[in-house]
């Protein structure tokens, strides 16, 4: 296999930011934001019960059926701004995941392009990468954009490869969650999972993960095996 590009998830893959975000409060505020728009209470309540990030996708899917794209993007932008305010709390506190800098340096030395595709705020992702002195490794960072569906849809991942100028057939996705695996498989991209303590491995297998590693310290060896 020829590997010319690697796209990483952010939270729990490159850095631990989620442990420093008040997700429960964020969920309540995002829900309230949706309720302040033309979204129906019944729909928001139903989607909210599926969890925060599922709610973001589900609400988008439902309002897309009846509202023009401009209204969908306006409503999503408002929800994203609310969530971003909570994610900003992690910028100063988040920590690098085991093996992160060394794995990125190994890929850089071999001329493999890198990108980030994350369901987190793009602005916050950029800020975290700069503060941790990682931004120079990446030729593209794609976070939440109102015009893109988030993982498990493949939109963000494909956009990242497009901005990296790498054919997805020559790329690898590295993430920690079933959403990452599902997005990669939907785009027919080879996917390596680095499970977090909260990730159920059997779910990753069921979703079609190609390789599971314990930390990014194992990534160089796996890429070598793929390209041998």
Give a verbal description of the structure.
With 228 residues, the protein is of the alpha/beta class. It has 2 domains: 5-17 and 94-227, Rossmann fold, CATH 3.40.50; 20-90, no CATH class. The chain has helices spanning 23-35, 41-48, 52-64, 69-87, 100-109, 122-131, 155-164, 178-186, 201-207, 219-227, and strands at 5-8, 15-16, 95-96, 113-121, 140-144, 171-175, 190-193, 211-212. The protein is globular.
Q: Count every beta strand, where a strand is a DSSP E run of 2 or more residues.
A: 8
- CATH top level of the largest domain is Alpha Beta
- What value does the Rg take, in angstroms? 17 Å
Specify the overall morphology: globular
CATH architecture of the largest domain: 3-Layer(aba) Sandwich
CATH superfamily assignment of the largest domain? HAD superfamily/HAD-like
Helix run count: 10
CATH fold field value of the largest domain: Rossmann fold
Which spans have pLDDT < 50 for at least 5 consecutive residues?
none
Strand content: 5-15%
Provide the succession of SSEs: EEHHHHEHEHEHEHEHEH
Biggest sheet descriptor: 6 strands, parallel
Instruction: Supply the number of structural domains.
Output: 2
- Cα separation of the termini: 8 Å
Mean pLDDT across every amino acid position: 97
Helix content: 40-55%
Q: Please state the structural category.
A: alpha/beta
Strand order of the largest sheet: 5-4-1-6-7-8
């Amino acid at each position: 296999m020829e590997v010319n590009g690697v796209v990483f998830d952010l939270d729990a893959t490159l850095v631990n930011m989620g442990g420093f975000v008040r997700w429960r409060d964020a969920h309540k505020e995002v829900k309230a934001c949706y309720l302040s728009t033309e979204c129906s209470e019944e729909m928001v309540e139903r989607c909210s019960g599926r969890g925060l990030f599922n709610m973001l996708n589900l609400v988008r899917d439902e309002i897309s059926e009846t509202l023009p794209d401009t209204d969908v993007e306006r409503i999503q932008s408002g929800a994203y701004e609310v969530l971003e305010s909570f994610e900003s709390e992690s910028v100063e506190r988040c920590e690098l995941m085991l093996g992160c800098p060394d794995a990125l340096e190994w890929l850089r030395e071999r001329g493999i392009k890198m990108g980030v595709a994350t369901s987190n705020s793009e602005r916050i992702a950029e800020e975290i990468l700069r503060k941790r002195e990682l931004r120079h490794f990446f030729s593209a960072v794609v976070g939440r954009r109102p015009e893109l569906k988030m993982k498990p849809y493949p939109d963000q991942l494909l956009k990242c490869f497009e901005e990296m100028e790498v054919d997805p057939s020559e790329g690898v996705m590295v993430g920690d969650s079933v959403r990452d695996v599902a997005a990669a498989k939907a785009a027919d991209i080879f996917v390596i999972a680095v499970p977090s303590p909260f990730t159920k491995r059997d779910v990753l297998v069921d979703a079609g993960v190609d390789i599971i590693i314990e930390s990014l310290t194992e990534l160089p060896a796996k890429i070598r095996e793929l390209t041998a």
